[in-house]
Amino acid sequence: MSEDFASLLAQYEGQGAGARPKVGDRVRATVVAIGEHAVFVDVGAGVDGVVLREDVLDAQGELAVAEGDVLDLYVVAAGESELRLARSLSGVAGLGLLEEAFASGVPVEGRVSAVVKGGVEVQVAGRRAFCPASQIGDRSVEDLSTLVGQTFRFVITTLGERGRNIVLSRRKLLEEERRQSQESFFARVREGDVVEGTVTRLASFGAFVEVAPGLEGLVHISELSWSRGVQPEDILSVGERVRVKFLGRSQDAKSGDERISLSLKQAGEDPWQRVTQAVHEGEVSAGTVTRLADFGAFVELWPGVEGLVHVSEMGRRVRRPDEVVRPGDAVRVRILAVDVEARRLSLALVESPTGTPASEGRSDDWRRYASSRSQGLGNLGHALAKAMHQKNRKE
Fold it and tell me: How far apart are CA 387 and CA 326, in angstroms?
């Protein structure tokens, strides 16, 4: 129960320790025995306390208490030797509390008891109230029956006919909580900061992460991983705690809602930062083919670090990449060139997925390439071409 509503209840509590509770008081009682029709409790006031059994059943109709449990209850009737207690107030005392809550805008707690036309029925302070489907949350709830038995905080939007017409809204509370949460978040977090959050939803275009109570941000699919082709469900699950980088905020042009952009991959190390130490020209490395293009195949050496095997580096008679490899194939490649700034690796296929060499006959292609390039290199180009020719004669 909210602290504000609890303060209102204090007006109806007993005057002090040891005082005999009166109607409307909230008391803490310990279950001492369970009968067929009632539950007996000790309120510590030298008088027996009785709670009707149906008042302590759960949504499935099962008894929700056991001997020794401590309950917060309200006095609904007081006799000479017995107090009648209940989980919530009813009658004049309950109505008085609701009227004060309505006048001051203080939230009240209510338990969803049934689905009715247009919304749900809610038990609040021992009275039946109505919450429209559009006001039960900050987004549409497809199946209202999933809310039955749950307790939420509401504000009273209508209170009339001496408590026979009570309309509630939960959405207003959630919107206000989200506004306050946004203000707090943006006051302490700056662009580039890494924060923790909880995955709330997965979509085809990314994942939503709650970074503050009621405040969600989107990790676009392009910001999930340094590897290409990763889907949200491949690496995340709803309810998972994650670290994300706050990229910025914007306003939706249509709805005017605040949009928060997050990145999962940027919250960790950029894999290209260790390329200069881990990759060297001339070395042979294992990799996995990720995708094909007309001009070659892309091979991932480790997550987020990908290079290109041009079709000319797949074999002398290869015209199309799919003649040699398929996405998902494990291959061995040679590092031809490394450009960390441009995030590019030039690779040559050393061994095909079947284990057969894929580099035979490429020397002729290279000689033709070197010869054609030498024409534009002046004396140095002629010298290189001459050296290559003399080497060929010796071979």
Answer: 39
The distance from CA 86 to its chain's CA centroid, rounded to whole angstroms, is: 38
Q: What is the pLDDT of residues 142-155, one digit of tens each?
A: 888 889 988 888 88
Strands of 264-312, DSSP E: 284-293, 296-302, 305-310
pLDDT, tens digit, for every residue of 253-301?
676 677 889 999 888 777 777 777 777 888 888 888 988 888 998 988 8
Distances (CA, A) of 39 to 3, 35, 58, 74, 78: 28, 6, 14, 14, 16
- Asked whether the beta carbons of 102 and 160 are under 8 A apart, the reply is no
Sequence ranges of the chain with CATH classification 2.40.50.140: 3-86, 107-173, 191-267, 272-360
Separation CA 279–CA 283 (nearest Å): 8
Rounded to 5 degrees, φ, ψ at 177 are -65, -40
pTM, two decimal places? 0.48
Which parts of the chain fold into alpha helices (H)? 3-9, 91-104, 171-188, 232-235, 275-278, 362-374, 378-394
* Helix, strand, coil in percent for the chain, rounding step 5: 30, 40, 35
Could you give the C-alpha distances from 239 to 201, 230, 370, in angstroms and in order?
9, 19, 57
Query: What kind of architecture, by CATH, is found in domain 272-360?
Result: Beta Barrel (2.40)
Using CA atoms, how far residue 77 sits from 21, 125, 164, in Å, is 10, 15, 21
The CATH number of 191-267, from 1.20.1250.20, 2.60.120.20, 3.40.50.720, 2.40.50.140, is 2.40.50.140
